[in-house]
Amino acid sequence: MNDVAGLPTTYGSEIFADNVPEHDDSLVRAVRSAGGLILGKSNVPEWSAGANTRNRVYGVTANPYDVTRSCAGSSGGSAVALATGMAPLATGSDLGGSLRNPAAFCGVVGFRPTPGVVPGPKREMALLPMSTDGPMARTPEDAALLLSVLARHDPRDPWSPAAGFLSPDLPLVDLASLRFASSEDLGFAPTEGIVRSTLRDRIDRLGPYLGPLHEGAPDCSGADRIFAVLRAVGFLGQHRERQVLFPQKIGPNVHANIEEGLSYSAADVAGVLALQGTYFRAWTDFFETVDILLCPAVTISPRPWRELYPTQIDGQPMQSYYHWLAMAYATTIAGFPSVSIPCGRDSAGMPFGLQVVGRRHDDARVLAVARELAAVFASDSVMNLPPPDLGALRSAPPLSQVEGFRDL
């Protein structure tokens, strides 16, 4: 989704299938100025809409642990590149979990920072900081290294702080001295039984290493409504003109967002903005007595990529194509930093992502806690996740030959 001079940059859209930018995005310039080498671009869903990395330009990106399953999205290509050793670092963006969902599905690290830490000077809805860029990596330490480059002041982003650059060296934290809460569903997210049971097992295994721990979550009342309205209004503002000009080149997810945005009234938007303020304060109150919240990063185990999006979870119908992202968008609308770290496999044999959430602007400590947890995982045969089988991937038939590769 970031322009790189001289490299095809399509945003997963047929409208931009032949687009080759002449200039680097400011994020890319920041990476280059720190000595980073740009190896290439990775695949995304159309305009990052939908957490299944499929589009009509480049087709499907599958899960490296099972090529019949989804790698999630929107930063699915980045997650797969990391998991398979194509690159040590990658960037992604996150609105409803697009850094964290693919990290969870593919067994890597995806960090959503506090809004403004990584500036978005080209974000069309500048005063609505729902979407943010962030780092992806194989370890929390590597994510912190990339974040130290991405975190910078940019006056073109109204949420960018005047200072507050982050060091690549994470602070030392003692897990036993921190106050933890855990939740299977944050009190509202439609969460699959396999995910619930895996979370319970991991919390039991982590218990001896952690400080005071209790079950609990912030009050997430209104989360679905807040995200639905603000997401749709954002897509309406960004993509309505494209829908009018190129209706045949707009995919079903983007189209659904725009139409949903058109259905809301000014009263709907005003009501949600007020509700979001109440929601944010509930999260702030919760973290007065809790340092770190642990929960699943995603509500489901990876499903077949042919399923564009889940229509049900354990028999519960989904309200929309993005309802299954509730575990991730709960933190988005509160604006709290969160990271998904690999924590072994679920009972289906697929990677399980543990989400670590901390206070606003406590990004460094969230990553430091993730680092300490990852060290615990490494010494546990259940919580340690081995890399994908590259030999099996080499021998698998090319996805491009599979029926439905470019269909939506």
From TrEMBL:
<feature type="domain" description="Amidase">
    <location>
        <begin position="270"/>
        <end position="367"/>
    </location>
</feature>
<dbReference type="InterPro" id="IPR023631">
    <property type="entry name" value="Amidase_dom"/>
</dbReference>
<feature type="domain" description="Amidase">
    <location>
        <begin position="3"/>
        <end position="162"/>
    </location>
</feature>
<dbReference type="GO" id="GO:0016740">
    <property type="term" value="F:transferase activity"/>
</dbReference>
<dbReference type="InterPro" id="IPR036928">
    <property type="entry name" value="AS_sf"/>
</dbReference>
<keyword id="KW-0808">Transferase</keyword>
<dbReference type="Pfam" id="PF01425">
    <property type="entry name" value="Amidase"/>
</dbReference>
<dbReference type="InterPro" id="IPR000120">
    <property type="entry name" value="Amidase"/>
</dbReference>
<protein>
    <submittedName>
        <fullName>Asp-tRNA(Asn)/Glu-tRNA(Gln) amidotransferase A subunit family amidase</fullName>
    </submittedName>
</protein>
